[in-house]
Amino acid sequence: MAKASVTGIIVGERIITEDSDEAREFYNQSRYGAIVNNKVELSLLEALYLMEKERLEIKTENGKKVNSEQFIKKAKKTDPNFWIRYCVFKDIRNRGYIIKTALKFGADFRVYDRGIKPGEDHAKWVVFPVHEAYALTWHDFAAKNRVAHSTKKRLLLAVVDEEGDISYWESRWIRP
User: Fold this and answer.
1) Alpha-carbon dihedral angle through residues 25, 29, 33, 38, given to the nearest 10 degrees
2) Catalytic position from the list 39, 90, 100, 153
3) What distance in Å separates the CA atoms of residue 138 and residue 54, rounded to the nearest whole number?
4) Residue 53 catalytic?
5) How would you list the strands of the sheet with 14-17, edge to edge?
6) Could you name the CATH architecture of 6-78?
7) Could you state, in order of their start, the residue ranges of all structural domains in the chain?
8) Could you say which of 65, 73, 122, 131 is catalytic?
9) Ordered DSSP codes for the chain
C-alpha cells in the first residue's frame, strides 16, 4: 500500500488532521469525523481504523510519530472498553456501513444502511458492543431496547468473543 497521505495530531481524545483536500475527503467520501476549521476531527476509533488502512499517520503534538500499539495503549486509558468498541467499529466499517457515535441517543454507535450518509436519512440501528463474558440483565436489555425504540431505530447487540469475532443480535419492538 502507499504511504499515508494525511497526518493527524493527537489532541486530547481526538485526532485533528492537517488542512488538506486529502483529509477532507475522509469526511466527504465516507463521513469519517467532522470538518472543523477546514480540518477533520476524528474520534480515536476512526483514527485507528484509518491508521490501519495506511491512510493516516498520527503524531503527538510535539511531532513524534505514534505507532498503532502506542495509540491503542493511550486509547485504552481514555476508554477501558476501547478494544471491544474498536472490533465492532472496524467490522461494521469493513462491511460497508457508516458507523458514528450515538452518545446523544444513549448508545455507543448508530449505523446507517449501506449507501446512506448521515444527514441524508436516519440511522437504521443503535449498537451496543459487549464482551461475550458481560452479563446483561433483563433490565439492561429492556433499557437498551427502549433507547432504540424511542429513537426509531433497531437495537443491535454486538457480542465480541476472545478472538475478536463478533455475533450480532438484532432486537426490535413489535405490536402483536
Assistant:
1) 30
2) 153
3) 42
4) no
5) 34-36, 39-43, 14-17, 6-11, 56-59, 65-66
6) 3-Layer(aba) Sandwich (3.40)
7) 6-78, 82-171
8) 122
9) -PPP-EEEEEETTEEEE-SSHHHHHHHHHH--SEEETTEEEEEHHHHHHHHHTTSEEEE-TTS-EE-HHHHHHHHHHH-TTHHHHHHHHHHHHHTT-EEEE-GGGTSSEEEEPTT--BTTB--SEEEEEEETT----HHHHHHHHHHHHHTT-EEEEEEE-TTS-EEEEEE-----
Say what angle helices 82-94 and 68-78 make with each other, to 10 degrees. 120
Residue 153 annotated as catalytic:
yes
112 included as an active-site residue:
yes
Closest to 47 in 3D by CA, of 84, 103, 90, 77: 90
pLDDT in tens, 56-86: 999 999 999 999 999 999 999 999 999 999 9
Q: From the candidates 27, 49, 112, 144, which is the catalytic residue?
A: 112
Quick: pLDDT tens for 92-104.
Answer: 999 999 999 988 7
Q: For domain 82-171, which architecture applies?
A: 3-Layer(aba) Sandwich (3.40)
Q: Which of 66, 32, 28 is nearest to 50 (CA)?
A: 32
